[in-house]
Amino acid sequence: MYLCGMLAxxxxxxxxxxxxxxxxxxxxSPPLEGVSKAIDFxxxxxxxxxxxxxxxxxxxxxxxxQNLKQNGATGSxxxxxxxxxxxxxxxxxxxxxxxxxxxxxxxxxxxxxxFFSSVPQRGDVILYDEFIHASIRDGIQMSHAKAxxxxxxxxxxxxxxxxxxxxxxxxxxxxxxxxxxxxESVFSMDGDSPDLKAMTHLCEKHEACFVVDEAHAxxxxxxGLVDNMALGNPVVRLVTFGKAMGCHGAAILGSDQLKSYxxxxxxxxxxTTGLPPHSVATILASYKQLANVTPSAVExxxxxxxxxxxxxxxxxxxxxxxxxxAYFIASDSAIQSAVISGNERVKAxxxxxxxxxxxxxxxxxxxxxxGQERLRFCLHSYNTQSEIETVLxxxxxxxxxxxxx
Length: 405
Ligand SMILES: Cc1ncc(COP(=O)(O)O)c(C=O)c1O
Description:
Elements: H1 9-20, E1 39-40, H2 53-65, H3 84-97, E2 101-105, H4 108-118, E3 125-129, H5 134-142, E4 146-150, H6 155-172, E5 179-184, H7 196-205, E6 209-213, H8 225-228, E7 235-240, E8 250-254, H9 256-265, H10 267-270, H11 277-292, H12 303-321, E9 335-339, H13 343-355, E10 358-359, E11 361-363, E12 374-378, H14 385-399
Parallel strand pairs: 1-10, 3-4, 3-5, 5-6, 6-7
Antiparallel strand pairs: 2-8, 7-8, 9-12, 11-12
Helix pairs in contact: 2-11, 3-11, 4-5, 12-14
Bound molecules: pyridoxal-5'-phosphate.
Pyridoxal-5'-phosphate binds near residues 135, 184, 213 and 242.
Protein name: 8-amino-7-oxononanoate synthase
Cofactor: pyridoxal 5'-phosphate
GO molecular function: pyridoxal phosphate binding; transferase activity
């Protein structure tokens, strides 16, 4: 029972337990005006697009061109909120990725929940990587399909689970039951990537639907790893815009039929107010910025992407020079995680780095499994090599006397 804003005892107990485990989450305040900000090794703004002036101005121009002088969407996309700018943005995104259709959701969280709660049906099977993002897990929980995890990035484990499911499908019924295989192209907590090519072939062989979350790959690896590796359209993709794209929202990329299905059945699209027009204009402007500078995924990288790439290579080199490899998970992406087990220990090192002017977030259990707590370094185009050197020096000093677990 709630009395005068007091939480029920059982809820207070849950908070107390979090506190005792050194895992209590809280919202931190931004630094006061005039106080210098810590150097950013924590945001998802990998290319600095959130502050990119060209994108900002282009978004305003798009709104002017469309004569959209409006602050809010005014309703669900299915009612009054589907402004014409949605069509422009979705067509542009679909064309850029070479797919039939893109459907914009309010966030990556909404897109994953919408897809997984509505597409897999009772009798279907979902095989997902054990480290898959919380938004996919939540969607799966809302689905009536059976779900099984496979070991992280472990092709062998996936092969055995997929073969087993495909076999029982062929024994039990005709082709009534679908199998979905789900992974991320860059894992949000580890920064590593699965063997997407092998997984695509495997899914083709067993007629499974392959779903890839590209949240941390879009913009870091050109238009994402599915495009980079030319994996083609049997893959359903999620792209999000709150990370390298520097704005907000997400899209599911697939067929026209899939789009129509989601418009009819994805509750996180239907029962919520749409994004305001200026958010959609910013998505379009960010995409144009990325697409214009990414004629081919490998060559023609933008200055921002080149800089980010150089910083990733430099960071990896410095890890070796400073003999920190044992702590770091191997990753070619903008996410570089040093596993330092124990909430208190990892928090203490993050605090120390903060005191020295560096913002590196401690990722605690239960967000990651106990014993796998970590410092997650997010690299950006705007980090300098001297910042990277200094922050890793500080890390090495903080770790003196500890051994990698
Ligand atoms: C892999 C992955 N998928 C989906 C999401 C959700 O995206 P959004 O922040 O747009 O809700 C995130 C964000 O943390 C993520 O890391």
